[in-house]
Amino acid sequence: MHYSGFKIFAQGLTGNKRWKANWRQPEPKDSYDIVIVGGGGHGLATAYYLAKEFSINNVAVVEKGWIGSGNVGRNTTIIRSNYMLPGNEPFYELSMKLWEGFEQDLNYNAMVSQRGILNLYHNDAQRDGFIRRGNAMQLAGADAILMGREEVKEMYPFFDFQSSRFPIRGGLWQKRGGTVRHDAVAWGYARKADELGVDILQNCEVTGLRLEDGVCKGIETSKGTIMAKNVAVCVAGSSGRVMSMAGLRVPIESHILQAFVSEGLKPVLSGVVTFGAGHFYVSQSDKGGLVFGGDIDGYNSYAQRGNLPAVEDVCEGGMAIMPMIGRARILRMWGGTVDMSMDGSPFIDKTDIQGLYFNGGWCYGGFKATPASGWCYAHLLATGRPHEVATEFRLDRFRHGHMIDEKGVGAQPNLH
Length: 416
Ligand SMILES: Cc1cc2nc3c(=O)[nH]c(=O)nc-3n(C[C@H](O)[C@H](O)[C@H](O)COP(=O)(O)OP(=O)(O)OC[C@H]3O[C@@H](n4cnc5c(N)ncnc54)[C@H](O)[C@@H]3O)c2cc1C
Hints:
This protein is of the alpha/beta class. The chain contains 9 helices and 18 strands. α2 (about 40-55) packs parallel to α6, α2 (about 40-55) crosses α9 (about 370-385) and α3 (about 90-105) packs across α9 (about 370-385). It is globular and about 65 Å long. The chain binds flavin-adenine dinucleotide. Flavin-adenine dinucleotide binds near residues 42, 65, 258 and 368.
């Protein structure tokens, strides 16, 4: 069903009774060409691009819960491509370009809003670092503007420029960054993948990987065995658990990341803003709530709920740049399990087990990567070769010393 303004009008006149379900509820087949484990944003995007770009549609996406129940429906919705390193920047810029055409491509309103992202800096060294990053971004075809204090003040006069411990000196602005309604991304990809013939199997937990003579031949699930020529794991915070079913240990720790939404306020923040002297990021949703977050909780966990010390830390970050936030009440908060890799960068790679592929390690930033991750994973699965912007996301990069350490903090999942 093609969505359009006319369709909304016509459906309105007939009591909205003729909308079709966004995707089918099929029973699993005995076998598929490709089984994707995990129906989050990345898994669904992979299925969509496999069918659309490579005409491979004998594909199942196997999800233990419901579509959108994982991090794709829990994140703070920020998209950007303001990276510095060669292994990262072209990949995230491809993602940004795919976001720009996302709604037309999928015929789905995901409220893609390029309202801009401003990374604040608070001292000269940080400004110089941002100049370097801005230049690297421009070399990769992205947009970047360095702002001084007065320009930031014009944009956000209510920020604390004087009395705080870390006075704001300026910021690096990426105008094309912004936000996207996160669960609509999952629904949009699911709807189109289904339309192209992909089976989306919800409430179907993968309990084992079927290995025969060192080759991955399928999966064991709560709905029975499903055979597959290739199995593509894509389970975000559950990466360690699922890969251990094949006896593999991935360089990933699972941590909790929390998100917060305040009560609805009148429009105050036009774009996304990040604090440079601590970890805090904030935007305002179309309903008026301030949507914000910060650091991961400081311990490993698979629970999808967070702890109070991280709440305090996040709120301190908010108070440091905009003290008026202290008067807003928090309406909702939740947690998601994120897959923190050792250098903060992701993996899209084959494993040493034939027929078993891995996509994970997205840490804080996998939502903005969703379209490019799906595209590049589909490319790898269909052609056997990494996509040209994802050649560095290898599982063996630590063995070879080729870490993609964007922040230069070393192998410290809790620091990046
Ligand atoms: C609070 C929070 C805020 C964030 N903010 C941002 C942000 O602003 N910008 C940004 O770019 N990124 C952000 N992220 C990160 C981003 O959300 C994730 O990196 C990204 O969503 C992960 O990919 P995914 O969508 O495929 O994951 P998920 O949606 O988590 O998908 C993985 C799926 O695998 C399923 N699964 C797990 N185990 C099994 C199994 N055994 N069998 C079958 N299915 C299984 C899960 O149920 C889940 O649905 C944030 C994350 C959190 C938690």
